[in-house]
Amino acid sequence: MRAPGTAPVRILATSGQESSGSRTARTREGVTFVLRQINVGVKSLADYHSIIARDLMTEIRELAHDLGDLRVCHVNATSFGGGVAEILYSLVPLMNDIGLHADWRVMFGREEFFNVTKAMHNALQGSPRIITAEEQRTFERYNLVNAGGLDGDYDVVIIHDPQPIGIRGNTSGLDSAKWIWRCHIDLSDPNPQVLEYLRPMIAGYDATVFHMPQYVPHGTIAPAVIIPPAIDPLTPKNMALSTEDAEYIVHQFGLDIERPLLLQVSRFDPWKDPLGVIDAYRIVAEQVPGVQLALVGSMATDDPEGWEFYNRTVDYADGDPNIYILSNLNNVGGIEVNAFQTQANAVIQKSIREGFGLTVTESLWKARPTIGGNTGGIPLQITDGSTGYLVDSPAECAERALEILRAPDAARAMARRGKEHVRAEFLTPRLLRDWLRLFTHLRQA
Ligand code: UDP
């Protein structure tokens, strides 16, 4: 019998998003595999001219000029579902447009690995469940194998989130590159066992990047930089959609466009609290008969818990004909998410823990009245009572939703302020600028 991790496996390219540039690598154990390279298409910074401030555009051009053709590689765990993939589909082509050579590679993992990384993710957000010694070995084995696939010539390697964090310590040949760990998770109250396990791996990085200062773990591990994420206003998900088009799309899913709609767009995950959203909807429905609720949630490939929680959510909805539970399996892609967000009377993101909450950014950018859980990155985006509402319970969420349904004009005025806040702080060009500043800094360090 072979020792775990030494079986010769060949993982063939399966996704339509992979480019022909995918690499084959051989690890020390002789494992051959393909580290997927994602084809991100083309974007042009010039297209953002009318949306962002001129100063920002100028700064990006100047920084890019000085960085020349810097070679950058992003590595994460999935090309589909969740905020990280969402960001990379915009950030990577824009980096290329301004003259850098940017790649995006997705690590290989099987369910046994993603079960561990999901538990790790939960633990880093505070869940008490530890990562067992056997799980640690699984985690390390996959990271070792993936490290073998990263043999390009890069000046900067950006590792996103914990899943590929161990690649840095297992890679040979990229010693002159600057290594950055980009953490998208709220680490303010982590399970100490898991953080201590990861700490030596984090220490190997030249810099770490977090959304907010509160997320930087206590105890110095590597220089920490704060860069909040952003949304791309020019993607099908966020571009301006007419009311008629939004109605047309939403109607195709069977919703009645004449009746009020509450919406949450989220992965099916307990931290996103879809059951709490259903509770809030039920309170609202007592006062506003006919109100509809849409729960739109994609199934990410690195989230094995998703199905289980999806089923729990469906059970909890208990056949209510006014609750619509939709996912990418119902063909809900970017334009459909846009339509639902554009059409909703109130957009909810009732998270209990939340790294940042791009769905909140997306909703505010569409000037929709937005209710967010008072947690993580959501208060960075919503000032309670000014640009939206922050809530701590289903009852509070219901109360705010009722306020929005009863006084839509006041709610829209608030949402328009939210949109301007997003324009100033949370659009992709600002994110691009922040990365360029960091690259410049690291090059001079
Ligand atoms: N998303 C989507 N379809 C869905 C559910 C989510 O496109 O059915 C997108 C959503 O629009 C957002 C991202 O996935 O862009 C989720 O990012 P967020 O920061 O809100 O949460 P995460 O999933 O990263 O915890």
Quick description:
By secondary structure, this protein is an alpha/beta fold. It has helices at 54-67, 83-97, 111-124, 133-147, 167-170, 192-203, 243-252, 274-287, 305-317, 334-343, 358-365, 378-381, 394-406, 408-425, 428-444; strands spanning 23-26, 32-37, 71-76, 101-106, 156-160, 178-182, 207-210, 224-226, 261-265, 292-296, 323-326, 346-349, 370-373, 389-391.
Bound molecules: uridine-5'-diphosphate
Please summarize the sheet with the most strands: 8 strands, mixed
Unreliable spans: 1-23
User: Radius of gyration over alpha carbons?
Assistant: 22 Å
Which band does the percent of strand residues land in? Answer: 5-15%
Q: SSE string, helix = H, strand = E?
A: EEHEHEHHEHEHEEHEHEHEHEHEHEHHH
Distance between the termini: 49 Å
- As laid out across the biggest beta sheet, the strand order is 1-2-4-3-5-6-7-8
- CATH structural architecture of the largest domain: 3-Layer(aba) Sandwich
Count of DSSP E strands?
14
> What does the average pLDDT come to?
91
- Briefly note the structural class of the backbone: alpha/beta
- Shape field: globular
Range of helix content:
40-55%
Descriptive notes:
There is one protein chain. By secondary structure, the protein is α/β, with parallel strands linked by helices. It folds into two domains: 225 residues, Rossmann fold (3-Layer(aba) Sandwich); 183 residues, Rossmann fold (3-Layer(aba) Sandwich), CATH 3.40.50.2000. The chain is 41% helix and 14% strand. The strands form two sheets. The protein has an eight-stranded mixed beta sheet with strand order 1-2-4-3-5-6-7-8. It has a six-stranded parallel beta sheet with strand order 11-10-9-12-13-14, with helices on both faces. Strand 12, helix 11 and strand 13 form a beta-alpha-beta unit. Helix 3 crosses helix 4, helix 7 packs across helix 10 and helix 13 packs across helix 14. The longest helix has 18 residues. It is globular and about 65 Å long. The N terminus is likely disordered. Bound molecules: uridine-5'-diphosphate (UDP).
